[in-house]
Amino acid sequence: MNQFRGTTFAFGHWRPWRIKVDTYWIAAALALASVSGYFLPLLFFDDPNSLARFGGALALPLGISASLLAFEAIRYLCERIFTTTATSSARRLYPTGSIETGFVLPESPRLEFRREALPPITLILLATSVVFIAEFLGALPVVQIGLRVFALVAGGVALLNVLPAMPFAGGRILKAIFWYLHDDHLAGSRVAFFYGQLTTLVGLGFGGIFLVWTPASILPGIWCLMLSWLVFTSSRNELTRSRLIYRAETVAACDAVAGLNPTLRASARLTDAIDILLEQHANGPALVRDRTVYSGTLSLDSMRDIPRSSWTDMTVQEAAIPLERLPDSPHGANLLCVLRLVNVHHDRPVIVRDERGRICGLIDATMEPGMLLRRGISRDVRLSRPTP
Known about the structure:
Layout: E1 6-11, E2 17-22, H1 23-39, H2 50-82, E3 89-94, E4 97-100, H3 109-136, H4 141-160, H5 169-182, H6 185-213, H7 218-248, H8 253-257, E5 263-265, H9 270-279, E6 286-290, E7 293-298, H10 300-303, H11 316-319, E8 321-322, H12 335-344, E9 350-353, E10 359-363, H13 369-384
């Protein structure tokens, strides 16, 4: 669930957002929008010229990008208005808007409903206002066409987000309703997942029909297939995230990370440490041991900043980040508490300690939460099993 390829942006101070832009999805949607915009003038003109076609190929992706920016700005304002706690939020941006990927639940289903219902309504009102400006304020023809395209695309993005499936706002509204009815966030996520699968099946059916109907319906068919796959993956990820939040609160972080991180001798050379880090990169950052005491941490990311010519002369201790500079978790904290700390300090590992305050390991943003949860559950079961 935590695997991601893209770019991360952070903005905001009171409730900061870290937006992970899923480059593959965004690039695919904008490329398909450009192709669709190139053929869009055929719906309005019998024989459109090249200028109209290339204008459409440019206007449609720009309209989608502007609509997404407006939608996310409205959502951020709604979150600032309706959320009372100043916590950070980790989100992933899809072509239809962003969804929460962190491990902090909304404060209540009512606040979640308000936060998700207002952005589509506000975007529709914004699109209506843009049409009014374009029609009645005598804008220039080129500006008028651009405003119309933006209003059309913004209205389409808003209406698309009404669908009761993730990652649309309608899916989160549906989750909030069933969360309120059952007083269980996981139950709401299961309902949203179920309707997401139904939406996927309907979208795949319509996409297949459009692909074989006529040549003119090929592009709508591709749009249906792409959005259906997006609904399938995002609804599955949301259910996985909800289950992880539900279970991680009962698992000790020390059990999840005990014996996982690689260990490096403080006196070893970096040329020797790189082999260990490459072999065990999935196990998170390495702990640097100075005799019997842990003194720092070293990871592949931190070694990229060190020139290779210095690897033969520099020791692990010299390149390591001291543990005093890392965020610390409470003694005996559960896995959910540590994962939330990792969301806040996403650029540094978090120290995990047992109930006595001893260091058990480190957890950072590159480690798979599902793997940590499975390790914690397995270790807890083995320790609680009676000895024959």
